[in-house]
Amino acid sequence: MWYFLGAGLLLSIASPLLAAVNPAVAAIDAGIGAYAAGDYASARSRLRPLADRDSAIAETMMGAMVAHGQGLSADPAAAVGWWLRAANRGYAPAQLALAKALAQGRGVAPDNGRAWIWARLAARSGTASATEASALANRLGRGFGAAKLAELEADRVAWRPWPAG
């Protein structure tokens, strides 16, 4: 009967095992836990080394903390830099955050075309952010003619994530 274990129980068993095998997983978990607890200094100290070693999750979290001034001064341009790195790795939550920043001109000059591309890339991910990304892309797309949409779609199709380092 052991094979009827629920997914939640299996994950609760597997997560600590994965963390023991992979210290980066443990550091991400600890950083996200510190963030959730509002301990931004600890979150930053745990996540920054991982972000510096190309972890898209850590880069996205660093972008969120910098964007919202959590534990340090808000710097929307620095947030965009973190999100751009993670977005180029194919990480959908960063792609959505970058699309929003581009659409609203936060930390970067407004660019609805690039925002549309990043939103469409995030929308295809199948993650929880996909629905929000799809809605943003649809809203932005209404501002373009057919020729511009075709040009943007060609750019989206040609996009490739950065190779794993």
Q: Biggest sheet, in brief?
A: none
Q: Percentage of helical residues? A: over 70%
Number of helical segments with 4 or more residues:
9
List the helices and strands in order: HHHHHHHHH
Q: What overall geometry do the principal axes of the alpha carbons give?
A: globular
Which blocks of ≥5 consecutive residues have pLDDT under 50? 1-15
Mean pLDDT: 87
The total beta strand count reads 0
Strand content: under 5%
Instruction: Tell me the count of domains.
Output: 2
Class from helix and strand fractions:
mainly alpha
Taking all Cα atoms into account, the compactness measure Rg is 18 Å
Distance between termini?
Answer: 42 Å
Describe the 3D structure.
- This protein has 165 residues and is mostly helical.
- It folds into two domains: 1-89, no CATH class; 92-160, no CATH class.
- Helices cover 72% and strands 0% of the residues.
- The protein is built from nine helices and no strands.
- It has helices at 7-21, 23-36, 40-52, 56-68, 76-88, 92-104, 112-123, 130-141, 146-158.
- Helix 7 packs antiparallel against helix 8 and helix 7 crosses helix 9 (146-158).
- Residues 1-15 have low confidence and may be disordered.
